[in-house]
Amino acid sequence: MKWQGRRKSDNLEDRRGMSSGGKTVVGGGIIGIIILLINVFGGENAQMLTPVLEQMNQGQNTPTEQRDLTAKELEEQDFINAILVDNEDVWKKIFTENNLNYKKPNLVLFTDAVETECGNATSDSGPFYCPADQKVYMDLTFFEELKTRFGAQGGDFATAYVIAHEIGHHVQTLLGTSDKMRRLQQGKSKAEANKLSVALELQADFYAGVWTHYNQKMNDILEAGDLDEALSAAHAVGDDAIQSKMQGHIVPESFTHGTSEQRKYWFMKGYKTGDIKQGNTFDEIR
């Protein structure tokens, strides 16, 4: 992926040099695995876990400490900044073309644990978007997990895809899609509510593809193998792939994010069309 030479975004918060003060959610062990399975590419599901986890976690107050970022962390910061800037530029353009106003989200890098307006979280929850503060949160160690535990190919464009997916959830918040989905879930069975969650996640994948389409035209970002990296990541985080790897069998009615094939299909549909009007995943899953 060609990413060098971007401007600096005002919306990147790098908290990796800070320790987490105050109460933090328990992580690791079976709880960490459960969080990861439910929240990988977390979308907005992190909110639902917070009350349960906070009851389990008594927490403790720790002093806040700060250290200088390493050279490797500063390089990672530049790369994440470039992806964030490209998302800002693309979505501003798309919203303007549709007579809409785009409000830029913040992206927060953290290590181990983080406090958000949606509650506290650990790195086990994977990258997630919090609609309450309109921020994307991510611990970059997730991408090593994506390769070693879930068999993704890895690479810089896999990271770009994940960030674009989470910013896709921000787009859904701005357009009112997320609120509408939550209203539709009320009174539904768990299986029907899960279908709506799948539609929301697949639409975020579609928006990641739309971003790639526009960004390729604007910045000529793609290099050989980049799309393969994104598709490999999409495959690795399909509900069927995760359940098969973690429990040896799949339970389709419990899917909340979509199958590997669905995730790849909707990303590629967004990439090929570049048309946000063709991303009605809610009609497709009925």
Automatic annotation (TrEMBL):
Biased composition (Basic and acidic residues): 7-17
InterPro entries: Uncharacterised_pept_Zn_put (IPR007343)
Positions of region (Disordered): 1-20
Chief site of localization: membrane
Compartments in which it is found: Membrane
GO cellular component: membrane
Membrane topology term: Single-pass membrane protein
Transmembrane recorded as keyword: yes
Membrane spanning residue stretches: 21-42
Pfam families according to UniProt: Zn_peptidase
Keywords assigned: Membrane, Transmembrane, Transmembrane helix
Protein name (Swiss-Prot/TrEMBL): Metalloprotease
UniProt source species: Flavobacterium frigoris
